[in-house]
Design goal:
The chain has 382 residues and is an alpha+beta fold. 44% of the residues lie in helices and 17% in strands. Helix 7 packs antiparallel against helix 8.
């Protein structure tokens, strides 16, 4: 199938996986618990400025500000002469919304850094960054950098209104640093995470960790949506790929049934297993389930084994051992599994049945496991 070797689709899948692997489950997250406005621009600006402020309540001095400047410098091209000297930002002041600038870092020595937060992916206002530059330039400040922070690298600065301005000079000052990205310099990997390592304040570390998860979660949601739309557009533009994708999805959905069929066949051919089983069937209505019924003798230590198959490389096979409560089992029947070399204690369910579930990634491991169960069951409590 061409769809399996299409370079554009492979690149799309790789990017999707990278974002998905970095996706952070928010869980018990203070930012999600205490607010429903974490998608708004001011919310993120308040958090970032609180950490950047050298006299903030974090009591870590200029630690977070210095790491932020290190991040900006790491985003500079190696031939860029706009390297920021951290010494110029001793006793810096961090201000919100002066001249409509989201976050302004300035010093008495007339150095400043302008931060424009676009984590909420808001549109750029006409001549927005040049206006900020002119505002601080007229006040006599040396602008060391204009940091533009989108959620991810998909958003570009709108320069259509940048006319009759020193555009090339301003462009050299602008550093686009996304909140999160798996490849380039970003807020999470180059500011938040290094700050966590350097901080000695456990409260700061906890907040930074949770804020990092929030950003990754927002980025993952947005990027996955972008990737899905890119895939949809590619399939629409290429009808033959669309047909192949439809066929591929159907084949994939049928694989669990094939796995169950193959497993049943192997059990029926296995001498150790065959001598003790009554029958092996695929459960009606659930084609991905193989059920093993054992002979109704006193030696039977369990009534049935259900084996569920699914498309998961780590737990493709779920083996469920069941002893039904309406049958007679002595203590030996229930506890014999404890004698195995692995943890196989039976759990009692609400309806009185005893059950235990094991998960495997390979067919060979399932066959070997069932062999061990049968041998152990028929050698114990005789």
């Amino acid at each position: 199938m061409e769809i399996l070797y299409n370079s554009e689709l492979q690149k799309l899948i790789l990017e999707y996986r990278q974002v998905d692997n970095e996706n952070a489950y928010l869980g018990f997250n203070v930012f999600a618990l205490t607010s429903d406005v974490f998608y708004k621009e001011n919310y993120h600006s308040d958090i970032i400025s609180a950490f950047l402020n050298p006299i903030g309540l974090h009591n870590e001095g200029s630690l977070f500000l210095e790491q932020f400047i290190e991040m900006i410098n790491s985003a500079n091209d190696k031939y860029d002469d706009r390297w920021i000297d951290i010494r110029n930002y001793i006793n810096a002041e961090v201000i919100r919304e002066e001249g409509r600038i989201d976050i302004l870092i300035r010093t008495e020595s007339k150095h400043c850094i302008i931060i424009e937060n676009k984590i909420n992916n808001a549109n750029d206002m006409p001549q927005q960054l040049p206006r900020y530059y002119e505002y601080m330039h007229e006040k006599g400040y040396d602008i060391d950098a204009i940091v533009y922070i989108p959620l991810n690298n998909e958003k570009n600065i709108d320069k259509t209104s940048w006319v009759n301005l020193p555009i090339k000079y301003i462009e050299k000052l602008v550093k686009v640093i996304p909140a999160f990205d798996t490849q380039s310099v970003c807020l999470v990997r180059n500011w938040i995470e290094p700050s966590m390592q350097k901080s000695s304040n456990i409260d700061c570390i906890s907040l930074l960790r949770q804020y990092s998860k929030l950003i990754k979660s927002l980025t993952s949601y947005k990027m996955n949506d972008i990737h899905r739309n890119a895939l949809l557009q590619k399939l629409i533009e290429t009808p033959e790929l669309f047909d192949q994708a439809t066929t591929f999805v159907q084949m994939m959905s049928e694989l669990p049934e094939t796995m169950a069929t193959n497993l049943s066949s192997r059990f029926n051919k296995n001498e150790v297993i065959r001598q003790y089983i009554k029958k092996i069937v695929k459960w009606p209505g659930q084609v991905n389930t193989c059920v093993i019924y054992f002979s109704e003798t006193d030696k039977s230590k369990f009534d049935v084994i259900y084996i569920y198959t699914c498309l998961d490389k780590y737990k493709a096979y779920s083996v469920s051992l069941t002893c039904f409560s309406n049958n007679t089992h002595n203590a030996c029947d229930i506890n014999w599994l404890n004698r195995l070399t692995f943890d196989a204690k039976m759990d009692k369910s609400n309806n009185g049945d005893y059950e235990r579930i094991f998960e495997f990634g390979k067919e060979d491991d399932v066959v070997r496991f069932v062999e061990q169960l049968i041998i152990a069951a028929n050698q114990t409590c005789e």
